[in-house]
Design brief:
Blueprint lengths: L1 E5 L2 E6 L2 E6 L6 H16 L16 H9 L3 E6 L2 E9 L20 E9 L8 H15 L4 E7 L3 H9 L3 E10 L3 E11 L2
Parallel strand pairs: 6-7
Antiparallel strand pairs: 1-2, 2-3, 3-4, 4-5, 5-6, 7-9, 8-9
Length: 193
């Protein structure tokens, strides 16, 4: 993976994909990201492996804008299109503070992955694995020891992806989300050393 820093983003190249962390002030970034998640959510309807997101609730446009402003969005581009995207927060998710994590860590030592998605037009191209590696590299650059995430139980392709990239299963638990109600999720973490 080739990496270079530009004025408004960190850019990495892997094959045909360019990864970058969107920073504030990037014209059209929110609209493009909103369109991307709208298309992802529309395509997941009826899918056996859907994360169960409800566009407009999760993801929420205002929340995406906040993540953009904080520089927490990482996108994979193919040409001008967003092929994949995720949010990487620089803290542990407080909802899982009491989880049975394998590795003990303070909240500020953890990055948490949210809203990981690959556009249906780019599935099977390798963008998901490259996006995971880009997220892990960003967490390392931010001085984090661990990356953590949750996966809706039954989303087997997502679980296989994270396991392939050395994420370890920690526990399964029920959680409540506004858009889905109570669901089961599986928690994973990966050490970044």
């Amino acid at each position: 993976m080739h990496r270079r820093r530009k004025a408004d983003r960190v850019e990495e190249k892997a094959g045909d994909f360019v990864f970058y962390e969107i920073q504030t002030g990037r014209p059209g970034a929110l609209d493009a990201l909103w369109r991307f998640y709208g298309e992802v959510c529309a395509a997941q309807e009826g899918s056996a492996y859907s994360p169960g997101w409800h566009f407009g609730v999760y993801p929420d446009r205002e929340e995406l804008a906040e993540h953009l402003a904080a520089g927490e969005v990482v996108c994979a581009l193919c040409g001008e299109r967003i092929a994949g995207a995720a949010v990487l927060t620089a803290r542990d998710d407080p909802m899982y503070a009491d989880a049975a994590w394998r590795i003990s860590a303070e909240a500020e030592e953890v990055s948490t992955v949210h809203l990981f998605a690959v556009h249906p037009d780019f599935r099977g191209t390798g963008v998901s694995g490259a996006l995971v590696e880009s997220l892990l590299a960003a967490a390392r650059r931010n001085g984090k020891r661990l990356a953590r995430l949750d996966v809706v139980t039954g989303n087997l392709p997502a679980e296989r992806l994270y396991q392939k990239h050395s994420f370890l299963f920690c526990e399964e638990r029920k959680v409540y989300y506004e858009d889905t109600g109570e669901i089961c999720v599986r928690l994973y973490e990966r050490e970044l050393t």
